[in-house]
Design brief:
By secondary structure, the chain is of the alpha/beta class. It folds into four domains: about 220 residues, Rossmann fold, CATH 3.40.50; about 55 residues, no CATH class; about 130 residues, no CATH class; about 100 residues, no CATH class. The protein has 25 helices and eight strands. The strands form two sheets. A four-stranded parallel beta sheet has the order 2-1-3-4, with helices on both faces. A four-stranded mixed beta sheet has the order 5-6-7-8. A hairpin with a 4-residue loop joins strand 5 and strand 6. Helix 1 crosses helix 10. The protein is globular and about 75 Å long. It starts with a strand and ends in a 16-residue tail after the last helix.
C-alpha cells in the first residue's frame, strides 16, 4: 500500500487527541470521519513482533504462511488502515499519502511497524508531568489508578519512547510550545518528517481549545490563556502527593527541562536536590554556579550525543541503575551482571563509607548504595564523568560462553523472577502475566529465546556485553577480565585507593559455570551463542573456541 501511517504518540492527557485532529487537516493525510484511540494497531504489531521475530517457534510460524513477506505486509497494512478508517483507503483515487492513528509503540515494536507498514512517521507529544498527572487524577478513565501509579505511568511512557528523540522518522512536540506557537512548531515537524508545508494543522490548534474533552471554537489568545496557570494545581496537591511526584518524576522533569514550580529557579544547578528521605543535599553547597561551571554549547552537544548513544543500548532507568559514579574517588564504574558484580560493588561501596559506616544489606539496592545515582548529578558532573581526564572509567567483562551459562544457572535454573521473561516468550504472554515459575526451561530453550531477542529487550544478565557496558559510547581507561579477576581488580584498587587485595572471596551467586561448559553446550548451541554474541568475542578478545574457557572460582 502506498499510503503510510503517521502515528500520534504520547501518554493519555498529554494533548494527543488535539494533535491527531489537527494533523488530519493536513492535505497529505486521508482525513478520517472519526479520530480516536487505535489500541488494536499496537496489539497487532506486538503480536507480529512476538510471532515472527522472537517466538521459539518462529521458523515454524513463518513456514506456515501462505503469502510471501511482501504480500503479508501489504495485507497487514491494508487491514490496519481499514480498521482505523472503516473503509479501504488503499485505492489510488483516495486522496492523501498518509493515514493517521493514535498509538504509542516501544522501540522494538516501532521497528516492526516500519518493516510491515513502510515509512512510518511518529509525532510524539510531551507534556509537563505535573499537568499530565493532575489531568489524569480527575479523569474518569484513570479512576482506578493511585497517585503513585499516575506518576509512574508518566515516567514509564517517557522511558519507553526515548528513541523518538533521535530517530529521523520521529518528531517530538512540546505541549507548551504547541499551545504558544503552533505554526512554528508544525513547520518544524513537517520539515523533520519530510511532509509538505500546510497551515491547516496549526490553524486548527489556534482556533480550538486545546483539550480533548471539548472543541469550543476560540481565538488563540483564549486558547493560550487556558494554560497560563496550568501549574497552579501543584499548590492544591497534598504534601504527600508533592513528595511522591518529586521522588518518582523529578529526574525526568530535570532531564527534559520541564518547568518545576517547587523550585525557585527551575532546572538550575542549585535546584538539583535529592528528593528522598535517605539524604538531602545542602543547596548552599552547589548554589555558586560559577565556581562549578556551566556547560558551553559544545559540551552540551557532546553530553547529548553520548546520552543518545547510550539510549540505543539501554533505557535511562537501566543506565541510572548500572552506572556507578564516584565523586569521592573520581571514577565511573559500569556494572556488568554475571561478571563478579556483587564482589566488585561490595569493594567499591566499602571504600565510599565513612569510618564506622556499614554496607547496605543488599549491595544491589541502588537507593541505599553510598555511590550516587548518575541522574542526580548536574549536567556539569555528568559531562565530567564521560569526558574529563580526571575521571577513571572502568568495567569488567567475561567470556560470553560462561557468562550466558552463569545467567541460566543463577536466574533460570533456580526459578528467580528473571525466568518470567523467558517463560513469557515461550508461552506467548507478557512477562507480567507469568506467575508460575515452576515449568522447566532447558538451557537449549533459554539460548533459543535469548538469541531471538532484540538487545533492548534483553535482561542485563544476558544482554551482549558491548551493549551492557556501552562499549563505544564510553571511553574506558580500563576493562578488566573476569578470568583474571583478582589481578585486574588490583589494578583498579591501586589506581583508586592505593591498596591491593590479597583475595576477593567467593560471591553467594557463584555457579561454577566455567567448569560446567561441556555439560551444557553442544556444537549447535555453541554456534548459536557465537553468532548472537559475536561482537563480544571480537571486541573483548575472547577465543571462539569453547575449549578455551578457563575454569575460575569467582563469579
Amino acid at each position: 500500500m502506498s499510503k503510510t501511517p503517521v502515528f500520534i504518540s504520547g501518554i493519555g492527557r498529554s494533548g494527543t487527541s488535539a494533535v491527531i485532529k489537527s494533523i488530519a487537516e493536513h492535505h497529505e493525510v486521508v482525513k478520517p470521519d472519526r479520530v480516536g484511540e487505535a489500541p488494536f494497531i499496537g496489539h497487532f504489531v506486538k503480536f507480529l513482533h512476538d510471532y515472527e521475530d522472537v517466538s521459539s517457534a518462529r521458523e515454524y510460524n513463518l513456514k506456515n504462511y501462505q503469502l510471501c513477506e511482501k504480500q503479508r505486509a501489504e495485507e497487514f497494512s491494508r487491514l490496519l488502515a481499514m480498521l482505523q478508517y472503516g473503509t479501504d483507503i488503499s485505492q489510488d483515487h483516495v486522496g492523501g499519502n498518509h493515514w493517521v492513528a493514535k498509538v504509542s509503540l516501544p522501540e522494538h515494536h516501532f521497528r516492526k511497524a516500519q518493516a510491515v507498514l513502510g515509512d512510518v512517521k511518529i509525532i510524539y507529544v510531551m507534556r509537563n508531568g505535573i499537568e499530565v498527572v493532575n489531568s489524569a487524577k480527575s479523569f474518569h478513565g484513570f479512576a482506578d489508578l493511585s497517585f503513585e501509579q499516575l506518576c509512574t505511568r508518566w515516567v514509564e511512557n517517557i522511558e519507553q519512547c526515548r528513541y523518538v528523540h533521535t530517530d529521523p522518522n520521529c518528531a517530538v512536540v512540546r505541549h507548551d510550545k504547541l499551545v504558544s506557537d503552533p505554526h512554528a512548531v508544525y513547520e518544524a515537524i513537517f520539515e523533520k518528517l519530510g511532509m509538505a508545508s500546510d497551515s491547516g494543522p496549526a490553524d486548527f490548534i489556534s482556533t480550538n481549545l486545546f483539550n480533548s474533552s471539548f472543541d469550543k471554537t476560540s481565538e488563540l489568545e483564549s486558547t493560550v490563556s487556558v494554560f497560563n496557570e496550568r501549574l497552579k494545581c501543584w499548590d492544591d496537591w497534598t504534601d504527600e502527593e508533592q513528595q511522591i511526584f518529586k521522588t518518582i518524576c523529578d529526574e525526568k522533569m530535570v532531564e527534559y527541562k520541564f518547568e518545576r514550580p517547587y523550585c525557585d529557579s527551575p532546572n538550575k544547578l542549585s535546584d538539583l536536590v535529592v528528593n528522598d528521605d535517605a539524604q538531602v543535599m545542602n543547596v548552599s553547597t552547589v548554589s555558586n554556579i560559577d565556581s562549578i561551571g556551566e556547560l558551553n554549547k559544545e559540551q552540551e552537544v557532546a553530553l547529548s550525543e553520548v546520552k543518545n548513544s547510550i539510549a540505543n543500548s539501554m533505557r535511562d532507568s537501566q543506565f541510572n541503575y548500572y552506572a556507578n559514579p564516584s565523586d569521592k574517588y573520581d571514577y565511573l564504574f559500569i556494572e556488568n551482571p554475571k561478571v563478579a558484580s556483587t564482589t566488585l560493588l561490595r569493594k567499591l561501596q566499602s571504600a565510599e563509607l565513612d569510618p564506622g559506616g556499614t554496607l547496605p544489606e543488599d549491595i544491589h539496592n541502588r537507593d541505599s548504595s553510598p555511590i550516587s545515582r548518575f541522574l542526580k548529578l548536574s549536567d556539569r558532573e555528568q559531562w565530567d564523568m564521560f569526558f574529563s581526564e580526571n575521571i577513571f572509567r572502568f568495567t569488567f567483562v567475561r567470556n560470553p560462553y560462561s557468562r550466558l551459562l552463569s545467567a541460566y544457572l543463577s536466574k533460570i535454573d533456580k526459578s528467580l523472577r528473571a525466568k518470567a521473561e523467558i517463560l513469557a516468550v515461550i508461552q506467548g504472554k507478557d512477562a507480567s502475566e507469568v506467575t508460575d515459575l515452576s515449568p522447566t526451561v532447558s538451557f537449549e530453550e533459554f539460548v533459543d529465546v535469548v538469541c531471538g531477542q532484540n538487545t533492548l529487550e534483553m535482561n542485563a544478565h544476558w544482554k551482549p556485553q558491548v551493549d551492557q557496558v556501552l562499549f563505544g559510547s564510553i571511553n574506558y581507561d580500563f576493562i578488566g577480565c573476569f578470568e583474571n579477576l583478582l589481578s585486574d581488580y588490583n589494578c583498579v584498587s591501586e589506581k583508586l585507593f592505593g591498596v591491593r587485595e590479597p583475595e576477593l572471596g567467593q560471591s553467594k551467586n557463584w555457579t561454577g559455570s566455567s567448569s560446567k561448559i561441556s555439560t551444557y553446550y553442544n556444537s549447535i548451541l555453541q554456534k548459536k551463542v557465537l553468532d548472537c554474541f559475536e561482537t563480544d568475542f571480537e571486541k573483548f578478545g575472547y577465543s571462539e573456541d569453547i575449549n578455551d574457557v578457563l575454569s575460575v572460582r569467582s563469579e
